[in-house]
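Dear colleague,

As promised, here are the two records you asked about, laid out in our usual form so they can be pasted straight into your sheet.

NAME FIELD: protein one
SEQUENCE, THEN STRUCTURE:
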Amino acid sequence: MLTVSAIRSSSGASSYFAADNYYSQPDTSISNQWHGAGAERLGLEGEVAPDALEAIFDGINPGTGDRITPENTVRKGVDLTFNAPKGVSLLALEGGDARLLKAQETAVMRTMAYIEKYFAQARVMKDGVRQVVNTKNLTYAAFTHDTNRNQEEHLHTHVTIANMTQMPDGSWKALHNDAIWKNNTLFGSRYNAELNQLVRDLGYQTHATGNYAQFDITGIPQNITELNSTRAGEIMARSAELGIKDRAGRGIVILDTRNPKEPISDRGAWLQAAYEKNLAAGFDVRAFAESAREASQERSTILDRVVDMAHRLGERLGPNVDLSDPRMSHSISDRLFMPIEKLRTEWAVASAINKLSEREAVFTQSDVIKTALGFREPGVTPERVDQRLAELHEQKLVLHNERDDPNHPSTQITTPESLLREQQVIAGFMRGRGEGEASLSPAEAQERLLDRQAQQAGVAGGIVLNAGQMVAARHALSSPDRFVAVQGDAGTGKSTMVQAVSEVQQMVAASLPDTNKTVVGLASYNAMVKDLGESAKIESHTIQSFLHAYENIARYGSEDRQAEARVELADKIFIVDESSVVGTRAMHGLVTIAEKLGIEKMVFMGDRYQLAAIAQGKLFAVGQDSALDTRRMSENIRQAGNPALVEVAALAREGEFSQAFDLLGANFREDKDFVARGVEHYLSMPAADRLQTMLIVPGRALKDEVNITAQQLLRAEGALTGPERQVSVLEQISKTREDLRYTSSYREGMVFENARDNAGTGLPAGSYDVADVSKTEVTLVDRSDGTIHTINPRGFSTNDDRFQAGLYIAKEISIHEGEKIRWTNNDHKEGLFRSTEATITKLDGDVMTVNHKVDGVDVEKSIDLTQDKMGEYFDLAYAINADQAQGATATNVIALMTAEIRALASRANAYVMMTREKDNLWIYTDDRDRLEKTLEASQPEKTSSVELMNGGPLDRTAAEELRQSLDDAKLEEIDRSLKELEPTPPPTPNPGDGKTPEDRELTQPRDQREVASSDRPAPADEPRAPERGDTTAPAREPAASPDPTPTDAFDIGHNDPFIKEVLRNMPERTRDMEI
């Protein structure tokens, strides 16, 4: 693990790090020594004297007395502390394995060489603009220590970097260390991976322990680790006592609870006492270390020969690696004779890119490095990952802007398939100009809309469109383009506009024989579909079901089947609601269907400033900038009765949060216990007002805390009645499709929901209990009939859009009569949909009776908690997260905001939370200043491949140039390239009707279709309004590591099943000769 801290006192730091070096191993090669190109240029070498270190921290050359950097600089330097795992500490110090000390310092120095090469920087002014210059030199000293403040073995190396660096012109400037702070997880990943490989080479087995490639030595009992980690226990206990959960709070606890560091007078006696303590607890550290030394000698004579045999049978590794991946070597000869470490590295880098590109079109090389190293594959080292990335750049299998350095870890990259897909969509938008079918001319549309206005004005409660809504409605009805956009700011009445378009379409249909002009809504999530259908009064479907019905027909269907589909889709205007959350793959599918099957009009409607897709892509925003004829609705209707809230919404949209918070006045409240204060406010409202109030939080962890707090207070005041019932419910955990290919993502007791039959694993669609997890296989039990399936999850393909699955974990909650709950899955047959709410009216044994609304009418339904599907797919519903709130409206909103969950403190998240209310908005936070700074510094939510390659936003001129470059021949070439890059064959149609199962599902009558799909889980990338930034399980369940471990990789070793098979089938004489 790596920690970073600022050095602010030159004298204090020099005393701590260098004075007598009293807790340093005396014979290490780098400790208490000067390092770095900067130190060499200053003539600093050899042992570090305390007065010389103090002078350097003060910006003075200790050899000459010359000042190097300005006097009284607050930042004296940076301390990078490289902490070895506890097992390494025990075996190196108490076990006497000096090889581990060398491994620690080797890993540190390799990491520091990388930092110096890429992250030594200074700032200069050029033409009035502050610029960052890479200097490639640092001045630093290293100190290896061996105890913590409780005098327990804790091997760690301090690297103290001085606040100075030499410029290319020979002058010296202060070190610009922002990049060092920002990239600390990259450095930690590289250090951990370097050390892990070195430890393995010494004969030890290792296992994953956390993020960023953290590991420890396998075989050390957990009780021994805990026995020698009392310092960590003190910090955790004190944090729990104070109710501190955030990183900043734990930092204060660390300082508050630490003892003065005392020197050890008799190191031999100290080590002997530590050894005897562990021996009494049942573990002989020295014997364990000796066995590892013996194992390392055996390895050189036996295992290497086995590995060599594996090289020559490399094609057998195919089932373990997705060799269809474009970023893997494909030829048999490559796979036969390529060193196994290189093959593993190819796989790790390809898998990392697949994982990252599921959710982002653009990412940095450092993201790839961290992710690839996080797989902890034997032989996959930082240097090999760097080399593989360089090869992929050369082969054009990853792309970067030509102005950027392809070798720098901060360089942003994308994939060819992401770029090609975005180019196809933008070109499709452009080709759609003048190719649509207008229902009416602009004048006719205006006349029909005015007629409707007059009708509505004469009806009690009638809704008259404002000017922006009129313009948008006329655009949808009369534009000659196939694709158009409506940018509707928050609260501008988009659903009302759609309802008007639908009513005019019906008028047109009534006046024309043999036509059925209708408006059909499409949205990403079931809750959005439900809201759109009810508010705009139109037929609505999920985008996913629409794509499943028609995309393969558009791409692969016969002429007859495509002709049938054109008839089915004729005379329809499709409204794609909340288009900002539509990812690139889905947008590509929609455009493909519209073009190939002749849809007359597709209107992309949403707000580009609100939350974007969880999947990669931001084509709604890019399309507005470049290719879509767009109309904007800007008049705020939702908050029209409160001018101050109208201004707050406008400021939030522009990112002016400080002004927005000021405008709220007393309604903006800062309190360290902001969760409790917000919940107390909510519960202090009259019951009728509570029903009209939305309590919004940024993410899942805070939502659980709010739900439990609200429940406790409601129980105390008597609002919840009857006996308390403990139930086990299922909660989905955030996993990419690439994650689901690793056994490390699975834990016994989880539930795996597989939406469709999977050819790669042979697993049928269904719901399964995870019964057992081995290195390479997962045993699943069908929850409906008990059938056992053992699968290798590597058979799942990231590139197959039909692979849609999710993992759930069980958590315990308590429920009462009067409880407010929210469904977390769908049961179409029973009319229960994810993210919709219900109230428990009765608990009778295993039966829970709930009240929920169907088309605005209260309906009661009984759920058997032990037998019915939805008996385990619900949660408490006092709080809602920002994703679920997008598109919703409430009379009052109480928003809980914090900068602690940095990934959720985004402008889009805050904008959504601050624009749902009609009458009242209250915001509670724990730290206003920090929240404002975090929001100000937050980056745009999503990235775009075309914007990366263009060097910025794509304007209409650039879009037109792109369209002209994509003639029919070029488009055919792109389509072939995409098929090669993503080799996903179409599903086999059912004999007799030429349709896929998805085709039949959507074209069935609505009631039959819902029954047919009632037991299917939602797709993996469309399962719910997702919980952003949440990758861990609740505290009661050990978190599934987001970094897959080497246990599920093709580990060439004594226990690898492939090697066992090679040995078992080898003729005995040959086996003896080889081994």
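NAME FIELD: protein two
SEQUENCE, THEN STRUCTURE:
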Amino acid sequence: MYKKQTKLLLHYGLVTMAFWLLCSFSAIAGTEKAVIGFNKAPIQKVLETIGDVYKVAFTYDPQELKGSQTINLDRKERSLTEVLKQVGDIAGLRFMQAGRVIGVQKIGGQLSSPAPRTHREEVLISGRVVDAAGQPMSGVSVAVKGSSRGTTTNANGEFSITVQKGEVLVFSSVDFASQEIVAEKTTTVTITLQPNEKALQEVVVTALGVKKEKAKVAYAIQDVKGELLQKAPETNVANNLVGKVAGLSIYTKSTLYENPEIYIRGQSTLVVIDGVPTQTDFWNINPNDIESVNVLKGTAAAALYGSLGINGAIMITTKKGKAGGNGVEVSYNTTTQFQAGFLRVPKTQKEYGMGWNGYYAFIDGKGGGGWYDDYGYVWGPKLNQPDPSTASGFMEVPQYNSPYDPNQLFEFQQNGYTDYSHYKPIPWITRGQNNLKNFLQNELSTTHNISVAGKTDRSDYRISVSHTYQKGQVPNTHLNSTNLSLAGSLKVTDKLRVESSIGYNKQYTPNYPETGYGPNNFFYNILLWMGPDVDIRDLRNYWQPSGGRTTSGGSFIPYGVKDIQQMNYNYSWYNNPYYLAYEFQKGYTNDVIVAQLNATYDFTKDLQLLVRTGLTGNNATSEIKTPYSYINYGTSAAPKGNYRVSNASNLLLVSDVLLTYKKTFLRDFSATVSAGASNRFSQAKSDFAQTNGGLTVPLAYNLRSSINPLSVGGSNPDAGNSRVESQVGSVFGYTDLGYKNMVYLNFSARNDWTSTLQKPYNSFFYPSVSLSVIGSEIIQMPSFISYFKLRGSYANISSDVSAYYTIPVYNSGTSWNGTPSLNLPGTIISPNIKPRKTISQEYGTELRFLKNRIGLDVTYFKYLEKNFPKDVPISQASGFNSIRLNADEIYRKGLEIILSGSPIRTKDLRWDITLNYSRLRRTVKSYYGGEDIRDGVKVGQRTDVYRTWAWERSPDGQIVYGSNGFPKYIDHVVNLGYYNPDWEFGALNTIAYKNFALSFSFDGRIGGMLYNGVEQKLYEGGMHPATSNQYRDDSYAGNATYVGQGVVVTSGDVQYDVQGNIVSDTRKFAPNTQAVKYIDWVFATYVNGIPDANMYKRTFVKLREVTLTYNAPQSLIKKTPFKGASFSITGRNLALWSDAPFMDPDGYEGTSLADPSYRNIGFNLNLKF
């Protein structure tokens, strides 16, 4: 079925690999020569060209080179040494090289020869050179001023040089301001080089992979350096981006192999790897392969990607080849992280056991004894009650692990009642104090990565291999992920350069845990419904032994043999957790390939053609093995097991061509004009099959073991397949205009033709325009303002719909006498469905203060989203339920603030901090049909309202009780608050001191509402710690002693509008005094479908990451084969502050149970050789 697609992936991979091998061989066998020549070129231009070609930097006095003759040199292949000699002979210059920095002297000038050496005292100057962030700088030139003597720093930024006392040492590196010191005595120094003004013009990756100076970019963009993701990497690298980018929301999950949710400004987003749009959930991305991540936040930022980029884009740039000291750089990185306890886990009561209303007895485990026989609640008798009439001294009742005698009925007493069971009564005592802890295993993850890279003047290559193993918290769950990436580029001629990369990832897990509320959730089973009378360790042998048992009715039920019937404390509602872990297997394998191949041809220095194609494909296989006696919500869902296998493959193929012309004219003006075309093809295929009626033989997991023939008809077939394809063709272009370093204006336009919409709406055009003004280049700013920029953008973007969304599709119906039938869909589809449209405006400013010590970036955005394709209800008298058309208009507005600074910056100590803040609001602009209100939300109001049933309350917020002593609820739904947070934030800190660096980050959300389903279920099940009280005992005894805190209405009335707002209130109140049974109050308050009692603020603050790194000095590793070494101690998810009990609000959707979150502590080792 997948033969054709597999052949395509294989062909693409082989071509890319062959190209990579060519690059690597070229790099290994290449020389340091390059083709170069000049025609009447000024000497400054000659030096600039030599620097670009041979990757060196020149230092010289411009005044000294004035009047130098122009250079004529025929164009041919030369080494750096050859070209310097020839240029020097022509221009009368002498060159002095130290590493990659070359000093230039005019022969006959003031510095024409080295200063004469006298017999002054010699001193040894040694130390380390670091950048502004405290990171070591390799290859820095350390030269004696006025001479040709010098050295360079090693991989750890260290140097040592002997000079004469009083001589001046010059430290210089490309893109950094030089620094000088006077050698007065033997000493050790630390030199910090600051970026020069040119280096401060940060380069970012924008749409289509085009690199631009950030000053020219007129929309919000924020980048994250790859090294920030590699010290404490998560198995899913998206989790490492949490809190690092304003406006990027990531909802993390604590369960093994569960995808994080990723949004830019509240919308799911496009991911682009090396300029090619991809389909990825980030599991296939190796953090050690990432050079940088640039987040393009607005629609204007990604307008050139068409509808794919309607919500912005995450641009990932991978590492490329670079040379080490011997032309090859080898790096090894390993990370190990251990679980270090729970960050937030539900607490449970330990005083009461299974049962109902104070009664419990195990009769047959299926409710044969009524409410008190394993009915599913933990509202049973109090544990550890003394009873002098028993041999144990405690109250004794029949239990799941009692001795069984089919020939004897045992008598037992409970709350004054006498009953009988074939199970012998045993002490009713606390056995399971730490059931969750005793069941789970410590989570562990390890990653090993090795990379080899090389580079010459004509080619580069890089190969990286990594493997990650993650052991889950649940026994018998783990994940293996292997990555292989190859990247290379080759300068075929002076005009043609070819680049390619391919990444392959294989994910495999034989079993991963199920999440959400349900009988397969381990935490659900153990924390909510397993009483402390059960010791989970007793359930490890999860198969019942051979033999049988007699029911209370006298019938004999055989146990059978192993692999037939699970052993558990309950046979009505829940499965044995060990049985689920080791027998209910959910296996998954996913093979992912991401590849791209591009060629760049320079017709002239101003005209360039880029041809590129990229492919993302995956093939996933899932197997679900359901064993015999599987239980699902009180029914034997699969008494004889089940087997299901499914396959799914996805393919995204994007090809584009881009012609670009760049020109500077009239000295102060610059222009870049690009035009291109693109084609995007996507395909998704899937099939599945499962047994019918169970398995003929236990554990025989294959389709041929199906008891009944497989059915392919009806609404629930046992087998089926699907295939979905779509295609988009596009033309696009953009123009960048610049004036000096002051003003930059950008225009872009695109037209798409999509296969998913009907004519004439399948063709849509969308433009964008943006403006950037560097105010600090136009106006003389106060001395404390280093940089000032204003920016604004406008975009009008359209997007298509999913495949077949506008085409009626018949559904399979019930078979009649073996004849299949088809059902007409219940939705009428309008023939006039248009593409969804987003009109965006964005305004921002960037400021830097105090010589760039402090930075401020502020962005305001406003989107109008219209033409939402949706199904609108209609009268069923029409024969249909709804009509599909374009409806509604929504505003999306927000604010993003980034504050960065360096509070401390000394020779040995530096502290850098970045604060991110973002706020998002959605409001209704209009409804389809001119409605003013829909579902309780008026035009102009927020869309994320939490609208549900609620208690009636007094003006001061107290719950109103009825005369029966139970809370009263309003007879219609009301607005309780808003789901989304008021704002989100992140704080990143890095403190560097000599060879040490400490980084730590906080993030969180403030405001918003969530429904705490964990707390609600703890109350319902009788496991909430607050249910362990005297009122519970009174309730068991039939006494009504609990009085709910609140008020009763003594007179008057209250009126509400349709949104639940009070429009009139004449009520008078008095305290509630009506006593009720506690168990009845709990169910009336927490189990009646009124979520009011379980609503909490989403607010939380989390200490997300702490990393302490030590960079080994050269003195420690100089006798080793390593050129560099660092060791880090890491911690993630270390602390949480939140008012919501029993749960971690981070990543919690509020609709299902959240698994307990945990801390991770580990280490990272990085070696270079």
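A couple of things worth noting about protein two: The mean pLDDT is 86. Residues 3-29 form the longest helix (27 residues).

Best,
R.
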